[in-house]
Amino acid sequence: MDLPARPFDLPRYLAVLPLFQEMTPPELLRLAEGCRLRRLQRGDTVFRVGEPCEEFHVAVTGQVKLFAISQAGQEKVIELIGPGQSFAEALMFTGKPYIINAQTLSDALVLSVGKDTVFGEISRDPRFAMRMLAGISRRLHGLVHDVQAYALHNGMQRVIGYLLRDLDDAPGAMPETDSGLMPLDGSGSGGCAPLCREDGRTREHRVSLPVSKATIASRLSMTPEYFSRVLHELEAEGLIEMDRREIRIPDTGRLARHPLQ
């Protein structure tokens, strides 16, 4: 359902997004005129493969999954989008239809910015194009990182990387706007220091799974059964404690070193 733009104060919201932070108030007002806001329910479609891509999108609230369907009907989650994250920018510039699907995983508020509006701002200020290019480059970096993880890391390493993804000071940790995985090779997780407190004591961390285990498993390119088995193995080793979707990590350094031991 499309919502009127004014009550939400779109210019104010746009101003806090990294892509638009350097824009002036008049530019933000002009940009807001080319936006639409939709309140979607869980399971609603944002776009489908084959539909024309005439805008890019930002998740204001809620979760959105980007996914593809194989000829056999199997779903592969490509990316999980959270609040404040944008998606479909690169495809918008190609002039081609969507090549993946987007669907809400929860009730969500999705902001869509029209192509004509974006092109107009680029023609007025080339710096806007540079900011968009930087965002697209970060996403490309995340996708390259995914390929490396799938090729070089086993399932245990990928799950541990996912659990430690929010630790900004973890070696090789990736920001949420990227893949959500972190490298767990010898150069990344060999040391405990960055994952321990400054006083030398172990560092505790808590993770709340934002979506179902099946969705996360697809994101990590593994079956739900294998994902659950890895979690139970980590719990049996005393590396994590699970309570439904809540996971407590008593010692992040020990968990990071686990695949190397």
TrEMBL record:
CDD domains to which the protein is assigned, alphabetical: CAP_ED
Record carries keyword DNA-binding: yes
GO molecular function terms noted in the UniProt entry: DNA binding; DNA-binding transcription factor activity
Signal peptide: none
Pfam families the UniProt entry points to: cNMP_binding, HTH_Crp_2
Keywords: DNA-binding, Plasmid, Transcription, Transcription regulation
InterPro entries referenced in this protein's UniProt entry, alphabetically: cNMP-bd_dom (IPR000595), cNMP-bd_dom_sf (IPR018490), Env_Response_Regulators (IPR050397), HTH_CRP (IPR012318), RmlC-like_jellyroll (IPR014710), WH-like_DNA-bd_sf (IPR036388), WH_DNA-bd_sf (IPR036390)
Single GO cellular component term: cytosol
Domain Cyclic nucleotide-binding: 19-139
Domain HTH crp-type per the UniProt entry, residue ranges: 191-253
Family annotation (SMART domains): cNMP, HTH_CRP
Protein name per its UniProtKB record: CRP-like cAMP-binding protein
Origin species: Sphaerotilus sulfidivorans
